[in-house]
From TrEMBL:
This is VWFA domain-containing protein. The gene is LOC100710285. Residues 519-528 have a biased composition (Polar residues). InterPro entries: VWF_A, vWFA_dom_sf. Residues 437-473, 511-531 are annotated as: Disordered.
Amino acid sequence: MGEPVVMVSLYPEFPQSLMSSKASRGEFVFLMDRSGSMNYTRIRSARDTLLLLLKSLPMGCYFNIYSFGSRYEHIFSTSVKYKQKNVKIALTKIEQMEADLGGTEILEPLKHIYSQPCIPKQPRQLFVFTDGEVGNTKEVIDLVKKNSDSHRCFSFGIGEGASSALINGMAKEGGGHPQFITGTDRMQPKVMQSLRFALQPAVVDISVTWDLPKEVSVTVLSPPITTLFQGQRSLIYAQLTGQSSEAAEGCVTLKYSLAGHRSKKKLHFSLRPAEDTGLTVHRLGARTLIRSLEMEDRELRGQQDGGVKEKVVQLSVQSGVSSCFTAFIAVNRDNGRVIQGPMKHKNIPTPMTSAIRPALCGHAGGTDMWDDSIEDLEEDMCYNCLDEMDYGACNNSFGSLVSDIWDDSMEDLEGDMCYDCLDEEYINYVSSPTSIQEASTVPQQSDGTQEASTVTQQSESTQEASTVTQQSENCSYKPAKNVDNITRVFSQMKKKLVKFWKSREMPLEADDAAPKSVPKNNMHSSVPEQPPRDPLLHLVSLQEASGCWLLDPALAAALGKTCEKLEKSKPALVTKEVWATILALIWLHGFKMDAKDEWELLAMKAASWIHAQNAPRVTKCVEAGNVLLGCSVKKEALGL
């Protein structure tokens, strides 16, 4: 930590003539995770993301969409040309996608993708989306590396459970870019950023060299740079060793090839360390080296003698940067006492959540009755204000209602539950439930069973109906005698919920986007009604593959106007498609500038389509469109 450290920041800007040289080329393959953990909001966000991706692809390219879980599916047998007919087929399939393919097995679909011959003059760009981890990470990464000469891989980790080793490794070996979508992040902006990178020609033959005085040596802390994208910063850290005069200078040279053109950039810097900078850059450099060594340790696990781990621990302690082998410890300096005793290891079990499903011991028929009750209730539930699992967000206070009903029901059931079979902490939750989530969370072991319980199958000879019971060896609970009580409780819960929803029914307001209850003709549907589509996504879904919009009732509804009003406002000598496309562009710029990262590429395609039409009176169309939509967007802002 006593030697100076250099940080080089690269933020490339490439010539526009080179950037657009291959913009209309490419084979785009999207591999989407459809395992069970992608349920609810994640799969909806994935569908919306695929819509934006498809609408943003350039004319002249090829595409295909794979999805995977325990098995994999693909929309087309091979990649197909990007045209309206194929896009329409793909969007229909995307709308039907659900998180129903089981586990997370990514290796087999990758093998199938790589087995497909590459299309001449169409560089393959692979987009991989997953929210989990796999048991064969190294094998997957090695497969991507093996095929790195024929494609670029852009990977996306969805949620906190996504494997960083898998996401970073695939992007690194595939010459692409990793992205992580966590917390409240929206998936679409990050995915569209990666699509912009994919549309850029590949930067290859990247090298970094150092020119320093003889008495000074350099140790590069960063892994070699394998990719460069316009607008994407890359950092290089290096430690300098040796003495030099204060006036001495160093030079770092970056060389690369872009679209067949060889480029070289030089940067000169003073070897005199800046004053009063602290150790910030040193720690950033140490962090980069630690992450690189951790990756090496994962790749060599079982094949090395612990040398990498020793390096990581030593560097972590010296720099004060945590690693996978070290951790910070809080020290209480007030009393001056040394804490005695061994360190404690505590396992935090992964919760097994099941919405508001009660995990009743000793009688699995209880959960079956819960399923039946909820299925019957679907006709009465307010899907517009429920976010699947997030009952607490409901404006109708659904979460509070169910919590009250749960409390009342549990009081009736407490005498019928088998406490011998339940985990101690879980018993506390059920005895005094503070929330629906707590009452339905049971620690789960690695083999998929609940703690201190076994699963046995009872035959019809031991009880009236065959049930699956979860009880300990000493459990004397007999579920058959309590079936009536359990049935009564669920019946009461159902009646209270039905009464609640019917009391909340009300006529629609003028500006309501969707009905407050499910239509009667859908009351027995097993699939809940989808919430209304975002206005931006609705407008995007109407765009043709060529980039234009059609002047039809669907577009009029998306713009909040009548079809007659749109046609009446159209300037003379202008085709309906040109007029409709200009209106859509004005709406995007006038009302959705906060989401420009999501629609910018498809808007550029629309502007290019208008240019190709040699359309007359474009200025007049922009003026008339602003008046119609109440906007003040300049013609230049539209790319026209």
